[in-house]
Amino acid sequence: MEEKKVVEELKKKFSDRIKEVTVQFGDEIVLIERDSLLDIVRFLKDEPYSYSMLLDLTCVDYKGQEPRFEMVYHLFSIPNVQRLRIKVRLSEEDLQVDSLTSLWKNANWLEREVYDMFGVKFKGHPDLRRIFMYDGFEGHPLRKDYPLRKRQPRIPLRK
Amino acid sequence: MPTRIQKEASKESLLLNMGPSHPAMHGTIRIMLELDGERILNSEVEVGYLHRGFEKICENRTYFNLLPYTDRMNYVSPLINNLGYVMTLEKMLGIEAPERAQYIRVIMSELSRISDHLTCLAAMAMECGAFTVFLYNVKAREFIWDVIEETTGARMTTSYIRIGGVRADLHPDYKTVLKKAIVETRKVLKDIHGLLDKNKIYLNRTRDIAVVSKEMAISYGWTGPCLRSTGVYYDVRKASPYAAYDQLDFEVPLGERGDNFDRYMVRMKEMEQSLRIIEQAMEKMPRPSPPKLMVDALEPAEAIKASRTKKVDKEIKLSPNLEGSERGKYLDILGTDKKYVVPPKEDTYTSIEGIINHFKFFMRDHGIRPPKGEVYFSVEGGNGELGYYIVSDGTDRPYRLHLRAPCFHIVSALEEMIQGRYIADVIPTFGSTNMIGGELDR
């Protein structure tokens, strides 16, 4: 019930910036405009909703669709014990979104992971570089056009 | 390309490299330290040495085939990883396991939790010099793994929890082994309390070191024992109970200060609660259906021969290797929905429907195909909230599978935790985060 209330409130406050609200397998999903991500997330983080935890942050590559990428944010409210999924769509030409590092500290590594795996750029990220793959790795492995068995040349030893 | 710290470090300070291959960096992780004497001015944690492309592999495997890969995430508690994946899929498919299977799942995940905590504390204590504690913990873990091995057939890479239930029923005599494991673990826990709780050396290295406030823990997305050590009450088993956790009575231990010692203490208390849960689950678990008497049962070869002319209505003796695949067991532990469960082996051998079913299950593009959509589900892992995010496009393999690894969030706070402390403090602090390489790097 609570979840519905939050979504209703969001719709009222940011009516023009919320694109779509859907329910899938019992989870509420809110699709929002890219540029209003920080505003909406900040609103949710404060009282009374207190979505104070960034549970997860990831990206999905819908190759062949426009816009191609979709950022997925899972927020969690400890006092109300509920999760909320916020999504933002990004087109391949303008692959960037606001960084959440100013609000949550774990966004730093999570965004680095998404940058590493998908090549999404985060505006305002203090230290955006690869996290799992090495420097000199070419391409972004979790994109759908990156072949499963692709091999890359060995990198020379550091001097 | 130089790393961040190499650029930022001042000329007077010393750069020291810990890891990726260092006795205290169990798993492979690298910490670059900028030092002034023994004081850490700045640090940088580098991860990714164990990155195996779990998520990419999963996108190219069917829902049934990718189950063994989930074992390799947190390899100290693989059963919880299986459970998380399977329950996410069950949420998508809208199925529920039989009650007995739910209790088996609870027992198995609690056993894994204990072995996870024991391993973490063993390593942490050993690195502080308490080798006895390490040996005691590993001894207790052996008893727990005996139970797991007896039921699942493997010690670590179990792949035991299956869509719709579990792979095989508990061993008929499991209670004896399990009770022994509980008694031994209790004894070991008591010994460890005696060895460490008031140990001056241990206290000096853990008390008030790497203190994490509630706000900091939440900001870093901490969950599990590490979050609870700061005093925040959040446990997935209580917040959104899954399997049979709502039927069982247990407490969620909390810490006060959020230092290394509290993280140790919360884990110790959690193990006691896990033992309580196991004992209750053993009592409350529904009894299995009585075993069939195999007096005039047929050998498989005879049954196959007989099935060529008429329907076989006698029982069939299956090889012990196929334990858990007998038709009689399905109601207890796997459910009977043919869409999601591998058909019983008797049917596959002797009836045309059974063999079609079998092929439909394993054939390319025919297996389990959840409806289109996306789902997130989480269970309480050894380190915290272990969540799976699956996007399905209606085919037999996931379009995207993402694992929310609790470890990743915890280790990302390490830089801040060791800032301004001595080198020696890195060791117990790192030990208390319970870094598991497989889960961290995926």
Structure notes:
- The complex is a heterodimer of chains A (159) and B (442).
- Chain A has 159 residues and is α/β, with parallel strands linked by helices.
- Chain A has helices at residues 2-13, 37-45, 107-118, and strands at residues 18-24, 27-32, 53-61, 69-77, 82-90, 96-98, 121-123.
- In chain A, strands 1-2-5-4-3 form a 5-stranded mixed sheet. In chain A, strands 6-7 form a two-stranded parallel sheet.
- Chain B contains 20 helices and 8 strands.
- Chain B has helices at 4-8, 54-59, 67-71, 78-93, 99-127, 131-152, 174-196, 200-206, 214-219, 224-228, 236-239, 260-284, 300-307, 327-333, 345-350, 352-362, 406-411, 414-418, 423-432, 437-441; strands at 14-18, 30-36, 39-46, 161-162, 165-166, 373-380, 385-392, 400-404.
- In chain B, the strands form 3 sheets. Chain B has a 3-stranded antiparallel sheet. Chain B has a 3-stranded antiparallel sheet with strand order 6-7-8. Chain B has a two-stranded antiparallel ribbon with strand order 4-5.
- In chain B, a hairpin with a 7-residue loop joins strand 7 and strand 8 (400-404).
- In chain B, helix 5 runs antiparallel to helix 6 (131-152) and helix 6 (131-152) packs antiparallel against helix 7 (174-196).
- The chains are: A alpha/beta (159), B mainly alpha (442).
- The interface between A and B is large, with 40 and 40 residues.
